[in-house]
Amino acid sequence: MNNNNNNPDLGKQANLKETLAIISILIFSICVAVFLFRDNPTGGPIQLSLTFTAFIGILLGFKNGVSWKEIERSISDSVGIATTAIFILFCVGALIGTWILSGTVPSMIYYGLHFLSPAIFFPTACLLCAFVSISIGSSWTTMATVGLALIGISSVLGLSIPITVGAVVSGSYFGDKMSPLSDTTNLSPAVAGSELFAHIRHMAWVSIPSFIISLVLYTVIGLSMSTTATSAIELDVFTEALQGRFDIGLHLLIPLLILLYMAFKRIPALPTIFTGALVGALFALIFQNHVILDFANDTGSSQVMALTKGVAKVMFDGYTANTGVAEIDKLLNRGGMSSMTQTVWLILSAMLMAGVFSSIGIFETIATALIRITKNTGSLIMVTLSNCFLMNLIAAEQYISIIVPGQIWNKEYKRRGLAAVNLSRCLEDAGTLTSPLVPWSTCGAYIYGVLGLTSFAYIPFCFFNIINPIISAIYGYTGFTIVSEEELLTNSA
Questions:
Q1: Residues 427 and 213 sit within 8 Å (Cβ to Cβ)
Q2: How much is the pLDDT for 4?
Q3: Phi/psi of residue 418, each to 5°?
Q4: CA distance 73 to 208
Q5: Given 3-state DSSP classes, what are the helix, strand and coil percentages for the chain, each rounded to the nearest 5?
Q6: Residue 226 pLDDT
Q7: How high does pLDDT run on average in the chain?
Q8: Is 275 exposed, middle or buried (0-12, 13-18, 19+ CB in 10 A)?
Q9: DSSP 279-316
Q10: What SS3 class is residue 22?
Q11: Nearest-5° angle of CA 439, CA 442, CA 447?
Q12: Contact 355/66 with Cβ under 8 angstroms?
């Protein structure tokens, strides 16, 4: 917020002590929520912590002369940023429901159980998600489709779900980060003032070593872990349960191919995912009539009405399995728009807090304080990375975590003669990659809604998302791959 003496709604910006105090309140309240409700902290406790911190921010704003009108406007703007993400979540819920009903997800799990080896499952999952994500430029779409199936396969094989989610997130974000089709990969150079493919080449120096180290770690973990459900007899029970409930076939993977094609053609996520949900519904009507009728459980209506009711119900309320195998039922009992309401609540609470923080000048105060401690190139890179992560913590949206630090640091990089690719790389290394590590960010909330696990459980296993910013900081202090504006112009000449 830029204070303007001509605007009576804008009061005094929060000072550094007030800013540190309110951030301390945020951290303390979240720690209390996690401690008291460790089984499900994102089921309401963290939402309460975020809302409570926002209320403290409102009181601080009143103290500093900020009007309610200005605070309300800022909240509205902040929530508006997350509107598309919220509707994408609802559409993903519908997609998960129809893809289970159509046999698409069961078929993906069925074939995965036959072809994926438990010993190398984690690195394979990471590579598969990276390939899909780099092809379509969307980590969210990758996680909601391929990632969801991999979670199911992992569950049946008796492998660790948190590690699997970590591998899925790592692969999805590597592909998203390195794809020229990705929103954030285009946004970062646009904000920093660098060229897209120069930005991608510069990121490769950090991303490729980070990804290789991650794959090695997933391989070592996979080879050292024992599984609890890998015998041929047990796998036969699971695959027979799937076949007994659904018609399984390669043709049921067509909805996945259609969705990936639409994403590759850069059709926006919202219409792409909802189209995927409708295609899933169509395939369910064509190939899984008996499943729909059994699910609808409406013997008093005509077959057409019962089919319509079953498809509508699975889109808004998800699928309920009854295969006779408890593990399979638990795996397939999910989806529906209603399943995303808790996640949407988390996003709205985070956006409420971010809007209040913006109105009272928290972001600007943090930026001003950080600029003062950048003494050399290494500290500049480190502070830029920290700024992006901090923005994810308090603004809860990766686009803000790219745009705001990009605007803050753009002139400083130019003043020091550093090429813009250094800044754009930092924005991705920390702005994009740390977002899924924050449970109340739009990305963390999305992963919770789609894959059913909070960031607290999978953070230790998101190796790529953790290692990449660390290597980026090391490069900053050593000067390795840090390019001056003059060097960049010479090399491109």
A1: no
A2: 47
A3: -90, 140
A4: 42
A5: 80, 0, 20
A6: 57
A7: 87
A8: middle
A9: HHHHHHHHH-HHHHHHHH--TTS-HHHHHHHHHHHHHH
A10: helix
A11: 60
A12: no
Q: What pLDDT, on the 0 to 100 scale, is given for residue 105? A: 87
Determine the Cα angle at 134 with ends 42 and 183, to 5°: 65
Residue type (1 letter), 200: I
Distance CA 360, CA 351 (A): 14
Helix (H, G, I), strand (E, B) or coil at 169: helix
pLDDT of residue 227: 54
pLDDT of residue 231: 54
pLDDT at 91 over 70: yes
DSSP for residue 44: T
How many angstroms separate the Cα of 96 from the Cα of each of 100, 106, 141, 171?
6, 11, 11, 21
Rounded to whole angstroms, the Cα distance separating 334 from 344 reads: 16
Q: Which residue, chain included where needed, has tokens 């994810």?
A: 392
**Residues 427, 433, 439, 445: is their CA dihedral positive or negative?**
positive
For the record, the structure tokens of 462 come out as: 């998101």
Classify residue 263 by burial, with Cβ atoms within 10 Å: 0-12, 13-18, 19+: buried
What's the rounded Cα separation, in Å, for the pair 19 and 411?
24
Instruction: Tell me how far CA of residue 402 lies from CA of 141, 187, 194, 269, 390, in angstroms.
Output: 21, 8, 14, 20, 11
* Residue 277's pLDDT band (cuts 50, 70, 90): very high
With tokens 């640091």, the residue in question is 409
Q: Which amino acid is at 436?
A: P
The residue with greater pLDDT, 40 or 414, is 414
Using CA atoms, how far apart are residues 231 and 157, in angstroms rounded to an integer?
9
- How far apart CA 11 and CA 9 sit, in angstroms, is 6
Q: How far apart are CA 102 and CA 291, in angstroms?
A: 8
pLDDT average, residue stretch 115-130 = 90
Question: Tell me, what's the pLDDT at 399?
Answer: 84
Amino acid at site 17: K
Question: How many C-beta atoms lie closer than 10 Å to residue 114's C-beta?
Answer: 9
**pLDDT for 229:** 44
| pLDDT tens-digit map of 164-218 | 999 999 999 999 999 887 888 888 898 888 888 889 999 999 999 999 999 999 9
Per the listing, tokens 């559409």 go with 91
Pick from 14, 41, 19: which is nearest to 29 by CA?
A: 41
- Phi first, then psi, for residue 242 (nearest 5°) are -65, -45
Nearest-angstrom CA–CA distance, 159 and 122: 9
Q: Tokens for 186?
A: 């285009």
Residue 388 near residue 405, CB atoms below 8 Å: yes
pLDDT at 428: 94
Alpha helices in 193-253 (DSSP H): 196-224, 232-245
**Residue 108, pLDDT above cutoff 80:** yes
Give the single-character DSSP code of 452. S
- Read off the pLDDT band of 235 (50, 70, 90): confident
* Whole-number pLDDT of residue 9: 65
